[in-house]
Amino acid sequence: MAKLERHQNSLHVTYKRIFDIVIAAFALAVLSPAMLLVILAIRVSSKGPFFFTQSRVGRNGRLFSVVKFRTMIVGGAQNGSITTASDERITPIGHWLRRFKLDEYPQLWNVFVGNMSLVGPRPDVPGYADRLKGRARAILSLRPGITGLATLYFRHEEELLDRTDDPKSYNDQVIYPAKVALNLTYLEQWSSFRDIVYILITLIPNLDRYFRLIPTIDIETLARQGINACRER
Q: Would you say the pTM of this structure is higher than 0.90?
């Protein structure tokens, strides 16, 4: 609980926000040539806009428009938010962008303007955020992030869903509550050092062998923890 109060301390919130602005501005400047190449590749390979925007739930439950590079055929997202590795809605260039997480780059703008943070829970679509009950509601006190503990644990989420018979049910009953547990752990254990390490592990996954911040606990146990957190007051 002390860690939670520390994260909510105005000084630490301000520090995290300044860190986000500086790093996001620097990254946008450095990555802009690569982003222009991605825009060109999307434009050449498929019809439609090169950006994809969608309403997501942000800090304190406020809605905002998340920005990504488009990886699906136009209108594909209307057929559900659960995506597997072999999803037919994904364009050829989209598979490549998603594999290397390049589709997430435009979210640096969301970070810069204050809708998101570099590190935090992934932003949910409204229907899923409504499932946060009890102690799990504290997750909404955070700005959603580009990367984070749950993101790194489920780095290969689309491949995992591809191996299930019913991806949506598995996501709703196992993956989502497991993410709730991980996001609560992030909130309760938050520190500036951990944020920096999560960013480094996102860029260089093998670094976790030195820091050991990504839990090795099985998904089913995490899911039970997340379900219990939604029941606790």
A: yes
For the chain, the domain total comes to 1
| 30 C-beta neighbours (distance < 10 Å), count | 9
The answer to whether 189 and 3 have CB atoms below 8 angstroms apart is yes
Whole-angstrom distance, CA of residue 17 vs CA of residue 124: 21
Which among 145, 186, 229 is positioned nearest to 3, based on CA atoms? 186
- Does the CA dihedral 50-55-57-62 come out positive or negative? positive
Matching residue, tokens 């990254």: 27
Domain containing 120 equals 2-231
Residues near 93 by Cβ (< 8 Å), separated by ≥ 6? 41, 42, 45, 46, 71
Q: Classify each residue of 53-80 as buried b or exposed e, where b means 16 or more C-beta atoms within 10 Å of its C-beta.
A: eeebbbbeeeebebbbbbbbbeebbeee
Note the residue count of the chain: 233
Does residue 65 contact residue 109 with C-beta atoms inside 8 Å? no
How far is the C-alpha of 221 from the C-alpha of 178, rounded, in Å? 8
pLDDT tens-digit profile of 135-193? 999 999 999 999 999 999 999 999 999 999 999 999 999 999 999 999 999 999 999 99
